[in-house]
Design goal:
Blueprint: E1 8-11, H1 15-26, E2 31-35, E3 48-50, H2 51-57, H3 62-69, E4 71-72, E5 75-80, E6 83-89, E7 100-102, H4 105-118, E8 124-125, E9 127-134, E10 139-145, E11 150-155, E12 157-160, H5 167-171, E13 178-180, E14 185-194, E15 200-206, E16 209-217, E17 220-225, H6 230-234, E18 238-249, E19 252-255, E20 260-261, E21 264-266, E22 272-273, H7 281-300, H8 305-332, H9 337-350, H10 354-364
Parallel strand pairs: 1-2, 1-12, 2-8, 5-15, 12-21
Antiparallel strand pairs: 3-7, 4-7, 5-6, 9-10, 10-11, 13-19, 14-17, 14-18, 15-16, 16-17, 19-22, 20-21
Helix pairs in contact: 1-4, 1-7, 2-3, 2-7, 7-8
């Protein structure tokens, strides 16, 4: 199904691009997917798949594989001053989709890529998007290959799923407004023998910030924090072992000024970024891919108004989710001191209220907004 002159060119083979190509291939739409990287990622920014993602992946077989390989999170526990101050339980998986299934992003991408290959589409690696032009009939993109060759490719539609530093977004001259928290955040994947419940996510409110810990598999935990020394805090709860990955990053909350222009659309981190709190980044991108495929199929059948539907629908969702996650992040990250006081006093109390618990559950499952494919 890969075509040198595809109906849709997908730029970027992260989870969003892979999912979009898969949903399009399911509809027998000729699709071509490219990525600058020569090999798939081996590290994982995202670490969990939520209920909404499993919903949109239903019928691809990938949802079943994710559930089979991952494990369902039972809930979250808030720790403050060495004490458990709030426990929030997710409903047991049972016959329903788990609200949150832990599976590292690299493995989710591998499952999507495998399903895509089964439908005749292979990611073209070492291919970089450089520029585009479009008219009423098609999009023309300039691509650079790792061997130095330059290629001009025409497609009827183009999807930019090429990450926070999206070249597609830049080619459309779209702003990416928002804000960035000033302090660096640290991340580790670290072996840990701990008294923390291995079936739950853990949030630790500390005087100088915030720490999040969730077991990935075996004894390896993902730890994210903005305190001076998050690992020193974790030693109160167990013994730390080998670090398999460490990174430092800044958290931004941004939404592209538009989610589409003409025959070109944006999805995933190219369209929206926010903090990892809520585990929504990858999941929201896969949801973008699902809505995009539905709209693109109709556009290719002659109803170009459906691309406006995509841009309008997703922009509204992106603004709403990023606003909510941004507010939550500012609340829990513990800076400045006056906000930390509100966090320490208000969050444990509010967390016991039924409406707050319902909102937390829906946010964790990605169900805090309806899944719409038509404006």
């Amino acid at each position: 199904m890969t075509s040198m002159h595809p109906d849709v060119l997908v730029v970027g083979a992260g989870p969003t691009g892979l999912a979009a190509a898969l949903f399009l291939a399911q509809r027998r739409i000729p699709v071509r997917i490219i990525d600058t990287a020569l090999a798939p990622a081996t590290t994982s920014k995202a670490l969990a798949v939520n209920s909404r993602t499993l919903e949109v992946l239903h019928g691809t077989g990938v949802d079943e594989q994710i559930v089979a390989e991952g494990w369902p999170v039972h809930g979250a526990t808030l720790h403050e001053g060495g004490h458990d101050v709030l426990a929030f339980d997710l409903p047991p998986a049972g016959e329903a989709r788990p609200m949150m299934t832990v599976l590292p992003q690299a493995r989710t991408e591998a499952l999507l890529a495998k399903a895509l290959v089964a439908r005749g589409v292979t990611v073209e690696r070492g291919v970089t998007f450089q520029s585009l032009s479009q008219d009423l009939a098609e999009v023309k993109a300039t691509l650079a290959h790792a061997d130095g060759r330059t290629e001009q490719v025409a497609s009827r539609l183009l999807l930019g799923a090429d990450g926070a530093r999206s070249a597609t977004r830049a080619a459309l001259s779209l702003d990416f407004p928002g804000s960035t928290l000033p302090e660096p955040w640290q991340l580790w994947d670290i072996a840990m023998e701990s008294t923390l419940d291995a079936t739950r996510a853990h949030i630790l409110f500390e005087p100088d910030g915030f720490i999040f810990a969730l077991r990935l598999s075996g004894q390896v935990w993902r730890v994210i924090g903005n305190t001076r020394d998050p690992l020193a805090t974790l030693r109160r709860y167990g013994t730390l072992g080998e670090v398999s990955w460490a990174s430092e990053f800044h958290i931004g909350h941004r939404v592209a000024a538009q989610t589409g222009v003409g025959r070109v659309a944006l999805a995933g981190d190219a369209a929206h970024i926010h903090s990892p709190i809520g585990a929504r980044g990858m999941n929201l991108g896969i949801e973008d891919a699902y809505v995009y495929a539905d709209c693109a199929a109709d556009a290719l059948a002659g109803d170009m108004g459906r691309m406006n539907d995509y841009a309008t629908l997703r922009h509204a969702v992106h603004k709403s989710v990023v606003r909510r996650i941004g507010a939550l992040t500012r609340m829990v990250h513990g800076r400045p001191p006056w906000l930390r006081w509100i966090r320490d006093e208000v969050v444990p109390v509010a967390g016991h209220l039924s409406f707050a618990r319902h909102l937390m559950m829906r946010t964790a499952g990605g169900l805090d907004h309806p899944l719409k494919t038509r404006a």
